[in-house]
Amino acid sequence: MNLTVATxxxxxxxxxxxxxxxxxxxxxxxxxxxxxxxxxxxxxxxxVRVVGHGAMVLGREVGGARVTITDVATKQILATGxxxxxxxxxxxxxxxxxxxxxxxxxxxxxxxxxxxFDLLHPTLVEVTAEGPLAYPESSQHASTTVWLVPGQDTxxxxxxxxxxxxxxxxxxxxxxxxxxxxxxxxLRASVRTLSGTLVRPHGDWDSRKIHxxxxxxxxxxxxERLQLFYNHDQARFEAPFFVPLPNDAPDGITIRVVAADPxxxxxxxxxxxxPVLSEQLRPQTR
Length: 286
Known about the structure:
Number of domains: 2
CATH architecture of the largest domain: Sandwich
Strand content: 35-45%
Number of helices: 2
Largest sheet: 4 strands, antiparallel
Shape: elongated
Order of helices and strands: HEEEHEEEEEEEEEEEEEE
Distance between the termini: 129 Å
């Protein structure tokens, strides 16, 4: 045997030893388990969690959220109900660092909506959420589409829907309360996340990073912008305003409070209307 033939054979055998054998192919991780009943329906559970964007889960404190699951192809409503439970652990949700695949909301008990279907084939569904239900004037809506695959449950955090906004409430004066012309009145308002936590200075939801102000309006015209200050004793935002004359506001006035966080994408509005009475109608004190 000459040197050239020997060298070629040596290279052939060395290369063959380094090549993987077809019969030793390794199946991909996560392959579905074998089943002999491929055409039977299989129970499939989907978990949906509705949260305030940058905040907690919408739980019983704010009335929860309504969740509806609809078959995209047939438009049939497959399930609907109210997300109930707790807002979640604030320390875990707001302050604990975690990897992308780690649960964000479900590491501690938190509100969720769960439904189980018997599915024959993969089904595209639309999942919609609306809330907070206890504050309809602040209610928001979100939706997404997802595939449901027979036998493949959605667990842990589930399908998470984010609702953007704030709950802004004017607490003083009460809406509809007559105001006396030329009076100095204290406007008092609260601002909460959609999950119900108060916005305040130096908190997890820091009011110093949010534009919070009031507007005194006659009709659609803004008469004055009011700078609101946080009152720690009341846990509310306050500002004085001067009630105009009835001739200037024959249909009364409107107070609007705005909470705006452009960086976080959350905005909220609270609004109330008040009739204006002449100062001559001031109640007599005894």
